[in-house]
Each structure stands twice: as C-alpha cells, then as structure tokens.
User: Fold this.
Amino acid sequence: MVRHEGHPDDSGHEGQPTCRSRRHEPGMAPQLAAGLGICPSCRDLTEKTLIELPALFELCADAIEPRPNETPERVGGHRPSGVVRDAGVSVRSDILGVLAAWSGVVTVERGVAGPDELAIRKLVGFLAIHVHWLCSHPRAADFADEVTGLADSVNEAMRPDAGFRVAEGACPHPGCDQTVYAEAQREGAEPYEVSCGAGHVWAPRHWLALRAEQNGPGGGPSPSAEGAE
Assistant:
C-alpha cells in the first residue's frame, strides 16, 4: 500500500531543498532536516504517530466489538453503529496494510529479515528500528504522509458524531474517584486523549496500560499518576 503520489515541488529558502510532505501549504514547506528527506516537524510527528498506532488500532477494535460488560456511550451525532463498525474494520486493515508495505520496503532494500507476523506491535516495532532510515529515504515524504494519514483516518472513523465513548475504569490518580473514558477527539483536546471527569488526562500509550490493569495481573504494566496531566 506504499503510494507513489506526487508532491508539490516547493523551492524556497534560497534554493535549499524543502520538505515535500503534503502537510505543508504550497510555498510554505520548511527546509529538510540534516540528512533526511523530510523536515524536523514531519520527522517528529511521524515518529510520534508510529509509536501511538497500536493504541489507535485498539481504539478501533472497541468500535467494532466492545468488551464484555462494556457499552459504548453515544455522546452526540447520529451515525449508525454499523457505519462506525465498518469504518473501524477498514481503518484497522489500512493500518496493517500500510505498515506491512513499508516493512517490505525495508526488508527488500536493506536486506534484513522482516516481522514474522502481520501483527500491529511487531510491525510498529520493526519500523521503529528503521524509522531514521525511512525518514532519509527518497520516498520519506510518502512514508511520513502515509503514517500520519493513518491517525487522520482513525480520527475520521471515530469522530465525535460517531458517538464513541468507552468507560475504561476508575481513575488511578491518588484521591480521584472519577471514571476514566476513552473518547474520540473531544473539543479542544488532542485526538484520542483518555481522561476522567476531574480532568486527569493520559496519552494513548498510557490508555493501553489502563486496559492492562483492568484485565488483572499479568495483563501488562499498571498506569500511574505520573501518566496523568
């Protein structure tokens, strides 16, 4: 699923090569980072998004099939639940497809063994090892746009009018008795923040730890108040 779409040929900054990501307005692209094929902001966003894809992948899973004793709450809008499920299935497939395609680029061009399983964590882990190489690749802008575009696709599938909000359990912050919710893109918040009614907020990676705690011993690392803002 590695795309080969054209990018605007931005030239500026006194003839210095500029980032060709489609995130930038024509004529407004910043210079490339030293030794890379994209700008520093695109590199940082790509690395951050790649690391958070497993959490976003699991968020889509909740829309497809809520966990036992868990009922997603409607928080507005009128999109049928079937549409939400279909969108979640499609986005999860796209995530695996894009990551698998770029893993293939790495294995072929670098001559290394790829992931032994088409699993989200293995694909992300593999690409994370080679992310610097990918960001310096001639198609680095395509890689950046496709990875960050996956987060945009999750955002669209789980947008507020889909009415998606899932209770994740009691807030682990000391002295807080509020319920923690995973809610798609609340107004004024970063997409896929997980928060409680008292305003304690976790990044997606800490949301996975919250789920592990709910699953009991052996489910994974427990969240701590340090993950809350």
Summary: The CA atoms of residues 12 and 68 lie 55 Å apart.
